[in-house]
Design brief:
Blueprint: E1 3-8, H1 13-23, E2 28-35, E3 46-50, E4 67-70, H2 82-103, E5 107-111, H3 123-136, E6 142-147, E7 151-152, H4 160-172, E8 186-187, H5 188-201, E9 208-210
Parallel strand pairs: 1-2, 1-4, 2-3, 4-5, 5-6, 6-9, 7-8
Helix pairs in contact: 1-5, 2-3
Length: 220
């Protein structure tokens, strides 16, 4: 019997890539998806649990796995209400981490963001920083927080602002060297590969991985 993985955010850019990779990975036999809506995939490895992720604790009985990949996140455009925004970017990852502790799951990986800082005056960065601190306090044995910079990849939704941002990043990426290297844009595929590699190998004691270090843990 292969491993069981849980993915939160499987309909998003990074989460969908993780799903595709795990479906092709013989080490995994069950992929549990917790979401508000179903994915368009009938692969027999997939088991879906549809509901309100603000009440993730109601799924406790089914929230069992070897590893949890948390790729939950929203944007100011999609979620202008800051209270709801925080419930998504802070509340859901923390609830997932708490369920890991309660159900004995020892590997938890979560996508945060470059610049995450609980003392930041920027709401987005402060929310991510608060999330990181809260998750790490749960003391899950193998916890990995990835802090990507601008994430590149083909999204299902067309974000004009991100298209402009991508063009801008590509035009001056060569200037980001040395200490500025971590600000380079990164492909979602690299993030997904790193998360799978870390989940399987658990080869580092570093629990927070900055954007420029993510590729150090990528797989083909």
């Amino acid at each position: 019997m292969g491993k069981t993985a849980i993915i939160l955010g499987a309909t998003g850019l990074t989460g969908s890539i993780i799903l595709d990779k795990l479906l092709e990975d013989d080490r995994y036999s069950i992929i549990k998806l917790f979401s508000r809506k179903r994915v368009e995939n009938n692969n027999p490895k997939i088991v879906e649990y549809i509901g309100n992720l603000f009440e993730l604790e109601k799924f406790k009985k089914d929230f069992t796995a070897d590893e949890v990949f948390c790729c939950i996140g929203t944007t100011g455009k999609n979620t202008p209400d800051k209270t709801i925004y925080r419930k998504i970017d802070y509340g859901i990852p923390l609830s997932a981490a708490k369920l890991c502790v309660e159900n004995g799951i020892d590997t938890f990986l979560v996508v945060s963001s470059l610049g995450a800082d609980p003392k930041s005056t920027i709401f987005y960065n402060r929310t991510k920083g608060d999330m990181e601190q809260a998750v790490l306090k749960e003391n899950i044995l193998n916890t990995y927080v990835l802090r990507p910079s601008f994430i590149l990849g083909k999204r299902k939704e067309n974000r004009i602002g991100e298209s402009i941002g991508k063009a801008m990043f590509n035009s001056f990426q060569f200037l980001l060297i040395g200490r500025l290297k971590k600000y380079r844009a990164i492909e979602a595929d690299s993030i997904a590969s790193a998360m799978i590699y870390l989940a399987d190998t658990k080869t580092t004691d570093v629990h927070i991985i900055e954007s420029d270090k993510i590729k150090d843990f990528t797989i083909n």
